[in-house]
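Agenda item 2: magnesium ion complex prediction
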Amino acid sequence: MTEIRATNITWHEGPVKRENRESLLGQRGATIWFTGLSGSGKSTIAFTLEHALIEQGRLAYVLDGDNVRHGLNKNLGFSAPDRAENIRRIGEVAKLFADAGTIAIASFISPYRQDRGRVREMHQQAGLPFIEIYVDVPIDVCESRDPKGLYMKARCALAAGKGMGFTGVDDPYEAPNAPDLVVANDRVTPQEAAIQIMAYLQTRLV
Ligand SMILES: Nc1ncnc2c1ncn2[C@@H]1O[C@H](COP(=O)(O)OP(=O)(O)OP(=O)(O)O)[C@@H](O)[C@H]1O
Ligand SMILES: [Mg+2]
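Presented output:
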């Protein structure tokens, strides 16, 4: 666990509560967390879902892996500690968005169970819904999609005896044991996946 380094800090509570923001927005804040292999379709579904929620009059915002690595997490790489810190920060940011009353949609490979578990815990402690969605696509399908050419790069690096720590090739992916929802995104279109998720969310979001 990451320790607080600063001393002499005290939580300052303001008069505006989460409930005030939620009643202003007419919705409850929550985090929807997509996990899955590179190329499984997390970003595609996340942005489709965001669009569908906005169309429904709900405020949603996507925090996407590559996008966040362009800014907030630009100083992090893909080593195990950096991946853990990446997910910790995104978890905290998603929690802030959810606390603001927004539906935060996080799409990150987030390969390690423990890191995702910590994000779930921090949401539970804050009384915020955390919905983990496993975008379940076999690696050979992801690899045949390979829109960024990363699997090809990773296979070449591996063959050259270097390796680049790419999830599913030479770095592990730990599938969730008990996700809230599984989307078999090799058998549906992104639109069908979004419809499946919207139907599920009706049972979880008010
Ligand atoms: N349901 C689907 N059926 C077929 N192709 C899909 C589907 N969903 C996404 N794709 C395609 O798969 C590729 C990978 O999708 P996407 O970039 O969303 O994956 P990702 O999980 O976000 O990957 P990464 O972790 O590398 O960011 C894209 O070319 C996308 O168009
Ligand atoms: Mg993506």
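Discussion summary: The mean pLDDT is 96.
Owner for follow-up: CH.
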